[in-house]
Design a protein that fits this description.
alpha+beta, single chain, globular, ten-stranded mixed beta sheet, three-stranded antiparallel beta sheet, 24 helices
């Protein structure tokens, strides 16, 4: 009976039992390591259950499971894995595809596109459209390197869990196009990035989006390039997208967003529009996720030259094949209306992307803004806080929205932000924010609003990503062993330092390894002498890597305790040696302190450069881990 109860608990579809079942399985795995009763059988006695560290609510679920098991026949409660179609098989094996996806070989009007597909949130395929693009014939690896080689892109590992992420020529997660195309076939990496604006002229916008509200809704343009063999998780994105394949094939599985419960959707936290399913697309566990058996889906192959429209919020999973897979995705915001009259006399022809206004246009260097919100999302935030049928919100209401929807504290900082928001959006300057105000301000005002509300860009969009992805303690331990614990060694060569930084367990990039080495090699002789490093200097040079612990809390206490322990070690084991180093090189150490400031300044200058780039974007003179499309 206990065995049947365990199955009921683990596979129940009620929210409480489902969560308790997962908690129960985790506790079972821990107990099997330490408890002899558990080690004998995966389904122990009731007495063993009582020893589990389960919440009280879960213990009640266990008792209910026992009661239910007592009333059910063994056959009804012990459905075998073999009897469940698609169990522990790749996504889509649980049932045949049964949702049709329309296809067109000729352009359709904006009115048809809006009414039949965007408004209905139905995907549609445009066969052969991208063959018209200049990029389709031009963008070989050689041409990309020649024409766009110095432009930058964000890169990710092709396979989940691949160390810290791939190292490009500008650090972990950042590369130039030139270096990428020279190395990607031999390395585990692919481009998943905002596309630099200088590439826009080689891309065409579909004729159905060439006028009216659709032409003014472009948010972001992304570039994807790999050697094939990549696949996404099952997810949904916040924005509408037209994804066009220029090389290779993408296999799409499409699931309507009315099946949220069946895919066990987990929101990403931003507006709850994007997010993913925890289901393993290569090994679907239909006992753990039983409702997935009812998921209906459509599937389609998008070949080189084809495009597909993916409605915002539509679940999809993608597999890329071919020895070279290249695609461009044009993201556009939610469109609630379409004026046929505005497009009546506009020819139904494709136009170059560089003739359109892209909200988050990126120049190809500096901070990216991949994954930021647009005017639609911010309007939604405010209108959702308008009481009843009201069409305006007061300053107090804006502050309340920040507290409730953005999880801010009800303090002076939040009050000031509310005033700044009102100042940005109050078009008629009447002291309240109305729907008319939000519709009247220039669309690019919402860029400034994004910086104000969302703060700095996602770390993956910056040059500092490596500092955040590497574990500070690991970096410090390895370099402490190399530079301080082996001090009888006269010097540490650059080759030894680089090997330590780029190999396990740090796995940093050569680019940032070189930068870090230079901060230690103060005399520029290509090695780190014993008198060029101390515990204090090491801590100063590694300060940027503490970014890994920002926002997690407790880092300051841990660092203080660690510093105290290291101070004790220094006084016990290295007191004389450290004292000699301080006496002999006091000026050098002071230089290092200045160097620390210089390093900080250098980091700051880098940020200033990025901010300068952002300012350029703001003036219009230059210009989240996304799932694969």
């Amino acid at each position: 009976m206990e065995q049947e109860a365990a199955k009921i608990i683990e596979h129940s579809e009620t929210p409480t039992a489902y969560l308790c079942g997962r908690h129960w399985k985790r506790e079972r795995e821990k107990k099997q390591q330490t408890d002899s009763d558990w080690a004998v059988s995966p389904i122990p006695t009731l007495a063993s259950w009582a020893r589990m560290e389960l919440p009280a609510a879960c213990l009640l679920v266990c008792l209910c499971g026992l009661a239910q098991a007592a009333t059910e026949s063994p056959a009804a409660a012990s459905t075998t894995a073999e009897a469940i179609p698609g169990h522990h098989q790749p996504l889509g094996q649980h049932r045949p595809p049964e949702v049709p996806i329309d296809e067109f070989n000729e352009p359709i009007t904006g009115e048809v596109f809006f009414n039949d597909y965007i408004k209905q949130q139905r995907p549609v395929v445009f066969r052969g459209f991208a063959k018209q693009w200049p990029a389709f014939s031009r963008w070989s690896d050689e041409t990309l390197a020649k024409d766009f080689g110095t432009l930058e892109v964000k890169i990710e590992a092709k396979r989940d869990g691949s160390n810290n992420g791939p190292a490009g020529s500008l650090g972990i997660g950042r590369d130039t196009i030139g270096n990428f195309v020279a190395t990607y076939r031999a390395q585990d990496k692919y481009i998943v990035s905002e596309m630099p604006a200088p590439m826009y002229s080689d891309v065409l916008i579909h004729p159905s989006m060439g006028c009216g509200e659709l032409s003014r809704s472009l948010v972001e343009v992304d570039l994807w390039l790999s050697s094939g063999g990549t696949r996404s998780r099952l997810h949904r994105d916040a924005y509408n997208a037209v994804n066009c394949v220029l090389s290779g094939t993408k296999h799409w599985m499409m699931i309507d967003n009315n099946q949220t419960d069946n895919v066990y959707f987990v929101a990403d936290g931003r507006y709850e529009m994007g997010g993913l399913s925890p289901v393993d697309v290569d090994d679907v566990d239909l006992e753990e996720f039983p409702r997935f058996r009812d998921v209906k889906y459509g599937q389609v192959d998008i070949n080189a030259g084809d495009c597909i429209f993916i409605p915002g919020g539509h679940y999809h999973q993608v597999k890329s094949t071919g020895d070279r897979n290249l695609a461009v995705s044009v993201l556009f915001g939610r469109v609630n209306e379409f004026s046929a009259a505005e497009c009546k006399d506009v020819p139904l022809v494709a136009k170059p992307l560089d003739q359109f206004d892209v909200l988050w246009r990126w120049r190809g260097t500096g901070i990216m803004d991949m994954g930021r919100g647009d005017d639609y999302f911010f309007k939604l935030l405010f209108t959702n806080r308008m009481p009843g049928n009201e069409t305006e919100i007061t300053l107090k209401g804006i502050a309340a929205m920040l507290v409730k929807d953005m999880s801010m504290e009800p303090d002076r900082t939040t009050a000031k932000m509310a005033k700044d928001i009102l100042s940005l959006l109050d078009h008629d300057k009447d002291g309240v924010l109305s729907v008319q105000d939000m519709n009247s301000v220039d669309r690019h005002v919402y860029r400034n609003l994004s910086f104000l509300i969302e703060g700095d860009s996602d770390l993956m969009n910056t040059y500092r990503f490596e500092y955040g992805i590497l574990d500070y303690y690991t970096v410090r331990e390895v370099l402490d062993d190399l530079l301080l614990q082996n001090r009888p060694k006269k010097a540490v060569s650059k080759a030894d330092f680089m090997s330590a930084y780029t190999s396990d367990p740090i796995r940093g990039s050569p680019f940032n390894g070189e930068k870090l080495f230079k901060t230690f090699d103060t005399n520029g002789d290509g090695s780190i002498q014993a008198n060029e490093v101390s515990t204090r200097i090491l801590d100063a040079k590694l300060r940027p890597y503490e970014l890994h612990y920002e926002g997690e809390g407790g880092r300051e206490e841990e660092a203080e305790q660690e510093q105290q322990e290291e101070g004790d070690d220094d006084s016990d084991a290295n007191e004389d040696e450290e004292e000699d180093g301080r006496n002999e090189n006091s000026e050098d150490d002071q230089d290092d302190e200045d160097g620390e400031g210089s390093e900080g300044d250098s980091e700051g200058n880098g940020n200033d450069d990025e901010e300068e780039g952002r300012e350029d974007d703001e003036d219009g003179t230059s210009s989240s881990r996304h799932e694969e499309l």
